[in-house]
Write a structure and sequence with these properties.
This protein is an alpha/beta fold and 238 residues long. It is built from ten helices and ten strands. Strands 1, 2, 3, 4, 5, 8, 9 and 10 form an eight-stranded mixed beta sheet that branches. It is globular, with a radius of gyration of 22 Å.
């Protein structure tokens, strides 16, 4: 009889440690850094394909970008919205990067991170009214879809939008992590990536990383290099 009780106790202890592990969500880790470009859009789509093939329940997407092309950002937002995603802004989600954060069903920020300054530009000039309107609406739509204030999202892209006590007309809105949390524009703020990962209790199944081809593609499709190549080509024609 004593042996039976010992066996039962061992089973209870084993199950007690196994249950938390079973409850941990299996995630696929993707770290998105650098300029948003056509090559980044292709790579992100492939990375999400890896996540699906791995059997992951969701993607853990870390974002740190100065922004980039809005057409590529729209494509990437669609990719992010196609699969359960938890995003962490770890550094900056400037310009087009704000759309990527808003596209995730939940997103968090590290304490030193910022988000915003998303005005579309052509070179050094503000884009035309049609482009600004369409882009600010895209930001608002993604924010609203995931329960965030669409007007605040619009103010990040359109300097003509004023919000009393927050941003005056003629200024673009950029939020620190603390400000974003106070305004309900992020789900939480963490000291760093490690504290975030510990609190989320994720089970990382694997991660997508870039190879030499991906890095070269990013370089060739960057705004500076593509403009330089175009200038050289036009010079050759002349």
């Amino acid at each position: 009889m004593k042996r039976i009780w010992i066996a039962i106790l061992v089973c209870v202890l084993v199950l007690g440690t196994a249950v938390p592990a079973a409850l941990a969500a299996g995630v696929w880790q993707i770290r998105l850094e650098g300029e948003i470009s056509p090559s980044q859009a292709v790579w992100l789509s492939e990375a999400y394909g890896d996540a699906r093939n791995s059997g992951a329940e969701r993607v853990l997407l870390t974002i740190n970008t100065p922004g980039g092309r809005i057409d590529s950002a729209m494509t990437m937002a669609s990719t992010i919205g196609s699969f359960p995603t938890t995003a962490l802004v770890d550094g900056g989600a400037y310009s087009a990067g704000a759309l990527l954060a808003f596209s995730a069903e939940e997103y968090y920020m590290t304490g030193s991170s910022v988000i915003g300054a998303a005005e579309p530009r052509v070179g050094e000039e503000k884009a035309d009214e049609k482009t600004v309107s369409a882009w600010s609406a895209a930001l608002a739509a993604e924010a609203e879809k995931n329960g965030r204030d669409p007007r605040i999202a619009r103010a990040m892209a359109d300097g003509d939008i004023a919000i009393e006590g927050l941003v005056e007309k003629g200024k673009l809105l950029t939020l620190t992590a603390g400000e974003a949390l106070e305004l309900g524009m992020t789900d939480g703020v963490y000291t760093n990536f490690d504290s975030f990962l510990e609190d989320m209790d994720f089970q990382v199944l694997g991660r997508s990383s870039k190879n030499t081809r991906d890095v070269l593609a990013d370089f060739l499709t960057s705004a500076f290099v593509s403009t330089l190549l175009l200038t050289i080509g036009l010079g050759g024609i002349v």
